[in-house]
Amino acid sequence: MLGAFAACPRLGYYYYFGGSKRKALSEPQKERIQFLKQLSAGHLVAGEVVHKAIRAYLMNAKEEQIWKLSQVISFANMLLDNAIQHTADITAGVNREYDHRAPAIILELFYGAVTAEILRDDLREKMRVSLEQFYNLPDFQPFRNGSLHENSLIERKISLDYEGILVEGAIDLMYPVGGDWVIVDWKTGENDSEESSLQLLTYALWAHEELGIPLESISLFKAFLTEGIAEPLLFSAQELRRAKARILQDIELLTEMEEFGDAANWEAFSACGQPKVCVQCAFQEICSKK
């Protein structure tokens, strides 16, 4: 969420204040903002699908049901197709009921920036590459093996309470090796080293503060699926303290924004006006960019 403020303060307002059920209660477009919050860029949807496909593979493998690569890819394609169909339904005004959470609404299709056929082919190819790398590459074999441990954690949701504000996330994979623990974060995009490192360090903070695992017993890895690289993130106690300080600074910044956000004063949150950001924004329908 704080990443949204960094990309565009107006975007942060829509996500954290305007689209919240408990904040900015006088926001006149609240219902529409809450709907638009469901939109997600195609590459993010594909990344989420890859994570779900890997989770399904690992959970089944833990139960001694090993999926073939073709099954993993087929499952991912099905999830993507569901999102594309759901977007088409929403755009056409068709409402469907789902047993569980509805599929994502794909931003580019909702705004008509690309055809479903072109987007499907592009995202399927990217997902195929990532899943083949995960399934076949020796660099990822230790992670696949580690997930089979009875105490492994697969997509474990976590939260840290700092000054009444919850810092939440989900660890893709965590497993023990002897007396140590390995934490893995699957990456389907480019190496945004600072933010992705902060994310992993936050997981280390959780493991240390909530589970009591000594820092020297924690190993962190970024698993870049597209590039086929498992990159260790080396860290010290000092770097972990810096990461915690960064989180607390972000919380302090968010607290300073509360007065304006709760008052639904969206004009206090400037729009970035950057075309590359705006074209990927779920709220382009209502943002004046002023």
TrEMBL record:
InterPro entries: PDDEXK-like_dom_sf, PDDEXK_AddAB-type, Restrct_endonuc-II-like. Pfam families: PDDEXK_1. It comes from the Bacteria. Residues 4-287 form the PD-(D/E)XK endonuclease-like domain. This is Dna2/Cas4 domain-containing protein.
